[in-house]
Specification:
Elements: H1 3-7, E1 17-21, E2 24-28, H2 33-49, E3 66-71, E4 74-78, E5 81-85, H3 100-109, E6 117-123, E7 129-132, E8 144-150, E9 153-157, E10 167-171, E11 176-179, E12 188-193, E13 206-212
Antiparallel strand pairs: 1-2, 2-11, 3-6, 4-5, 6-13, 7-12, 8-11, 8-13, 9-10, 9-12
The protein binds N-[(3-hydroxypyridin-2-yl)carbonyl]glycine and fe (iii) ion (FE).
């Protein structure tokens, strides 16, 4: 059973190289260098309108990753717990629209509806993201589509229980990864980034976009 069986004719729509890593499709170089720069420029505008912030974990510690979002929803966490919010915690404003290139990536994999959240994670050297499940969305039949920009990241993915065995893979600038079907609820996280590898971000580091549908249809 190869990719052909999993993706069928849809594969022809996708540019670049697709690898199945631990059963998860990773579209290497889905965005070429020009597209990466163009998306980055959109993300800079978004960060100006909706400044990235470090959510506070349930333990009362700020996360090492800085977060903002485009679209209707943004993930948020403070001492009261975590949830999706619809207004920026500092400005009180709605989040900016999702960039066209990110929407295009989503539509390669899901045509039933647009995403209503594009979460943007910024990793500086030393930042990481603990093992978690994305399960606060209304309908798990929608995928989560991830786009990586900048320095490589070591992505760890396990099973449906926190203690299940995990495997790791590197995500590079321009790669798109899709968590759908039986992979949708797997525990996953980022162990570390390899700082100084990519020249895309002026100050180095990594950006990750995850496109999702949070609300009901
Ligand atoms: C990251 N990614 O790559 C964190 N979640 O920085 C995620 O948490 C993630 O890549 C759901 C689906 C795909 C992901
Ligand atoms: Fe996640």
């Amino acid at each position: 059973m190869g990719l052909q069986a999993e993706w069928g004719k849809d594969m022809a729509l996708v540019s670049g190289m697709v690898e199945t890593v631990h059963g998860i499709p990773v579209f290497r170089g889905f965005l070429d260098a020009d597209e990466q720069r163009s998306l980055l420029s959109d993300l800079r505008d978004i960060a100006r309108a909706a400044p990235p912030f470090s959510p506070i974990t349930g333990w009362g510690k700020p996360m090492s990753v800085r977060i903002t979002a485009a679209g209707r929803f943004c993930w948020y966490s403070d001492r009261r717990g975590y949830r999706y919010i619809e207004a920026h915690p500092a400005t009180g404003q709605a989040f900016p629209p999702i960039p066209a290139l990110a929407l295009r990536a989503w539509h390669e994999f899901e045509t039933r509806a647009d995403p209503d959240c594009c979460l943007i994670n910024h990793y500086r050297e030393g930042a990481r993201m603990g093992l978690h499940q994305d399960r606060d969305e209304a309908d798990f039949s929608f995928p989560v589509v991830s786009i990586s920009l900048g320095d490589p990241a070591l992505f760890r993915i396990g099973g449906l229980e926190r203690g299940d065995p995990t495997r790791s893979l590197w995500l590079y600038s321009g790669d798109v990864m899709v968590l759908s079907g039986e992979n949708r609820l797997r525990f996953h996280g980022i162990d570390r980034i390899k700082a100084g590898e990519s020249a895309l971000l002026k100050d180095g580091g990594r950006l990750n976009l995850t496109l999702r549908r949070v609300g009901e249809m």
